[in-house]
């Protein structure tokens, strides 16, 4: 049981490049989330998916798109990376029967 | 939206000391979680505690939901307790979205 798995763990992009961060959970959870963490701050919600087939904006959605590919997978895409998107990105999931969230290991992204 | 305030922002302890970390929130919640972010950046889920008291080894937590605060107790601190401690809450009606505090940076010195 791997829990929430994020790939890659580290990535360096040049300004303007695109990339997709992958997240998969094997706990049969309904809800999935993408957060970003900037220095000195807590995590802030980018997008979430309350169930398969639905996605909604969080607190800081600009510059990102998401896809809930199936119940297991929720990807985050940066179409044209900017230095302001340098951050650590966390994926999380939650079952329908509880309000407890489970987090992945994080992806450290640097945009130069 | 809901406000989450953690205090103190920074804490330095000598190994073996005890400490209390506080999380205040501004509205009713149906989820409260404490996390430890270790020096490698991993988020470790310490407690899921929307109300009541729980203990896990040297750590314990209490949430008084009616008074809108939670406390995390660390006893006999160890250097491995160093890192950042986050409180995160879900406001009732917030459609499963967690709001994080800014964290408490704990340094335990040998």
Compact description:
The complex is a heterodimer of chains A (112) and B (110). With 112 residues, chain A is mainly beta.
Helical residue percent band of chain A: under 10%
Outline the low-pLDDT stretches of chain A: none
Q: Looking at the structure, what is the overall shape of chain A?
A: globular
Structural class of chain B: mainly beta
Helix fraction of chain B by DSSP (H/I, runs of at least 4): under 10%
Low-pLDDT residue spans of chain B: none
What is the mean pLDDT of chain B? 94
Let me know the largest β-sheet of chain B.
6 strands, mixed
Give the ordered list of helices and strands of chain A.
Answer: EEEEEEEEEEE
Please state the overall shape of chain B, judged from the principal axes of the Cα atoms.
Answer: globular
Strands of chain B, count: 11
Q: Biggest chain pair contact, residues each?
A: A-B, 26 and 23 residues
Radius of gyration of chain A using CA atoms only: 13 Å
Number of helices of chain B: 0
| SSE succession of chain B | EEEEEEEEEEE
Derived from helix and strand composition plus strand pairing, the structural class of chain A reads mainly beta
Instruction: Describe the oligomeric state of these chains in a short phrase.
Output: heterodimer
Overall mean pLDDT of chain A stands at: 94
Radius of gyration of chain B: 13 Å
Distance between the termini of chain B: 40 Å
Q: What's the end-to-end separation of chain A, in Å?
A: 36 Å
């Amino acid at each position: 049981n791997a829990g929430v798995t994020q790939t890659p763990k580290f990535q360096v992009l040049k300004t303007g490049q695109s990339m997709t961060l992958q997240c998969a959970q094997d706990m049969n959870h309904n809800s999935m989330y993408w957060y970003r963490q900037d220095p000195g701050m807590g995590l802030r919600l980018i997008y979430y998916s309350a169930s398969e087939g639905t996605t909604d904006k969080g607190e800081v959605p600009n510059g990102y798109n998401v896809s809930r590919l199936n119940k297991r997978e929720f990807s985050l895409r940066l179409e044209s990376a900017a230095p302001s998107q340098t951050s650590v990105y966390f994926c999380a999931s939650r079952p329908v029967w509880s309000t407890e969230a489970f987090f992945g290991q994080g992806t450290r992204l640097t945009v130069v | 939206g809901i406000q989450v305030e953690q205090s103190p922002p920074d804490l330095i302890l000598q190994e073996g000391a005890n400490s209390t970390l506080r999380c205040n929130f501004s509205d009713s919640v149906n989820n409260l979680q404490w996390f430890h972010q270790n020096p490698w950046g991993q988020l470790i889920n310490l407690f899921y505690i929307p109300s009541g008291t729980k203990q896990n080894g040297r750590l314990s937590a209490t949430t008084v939901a009616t008074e809108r605060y939670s406390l995390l107790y660390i006893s006999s601190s160890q250097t491995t307790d160093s890192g950042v401690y986050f409180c995160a809450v879900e406001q009732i009606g917030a459609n499963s979205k967690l709001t994080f505090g800014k964290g408490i940076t704990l340094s335990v010195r040998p």
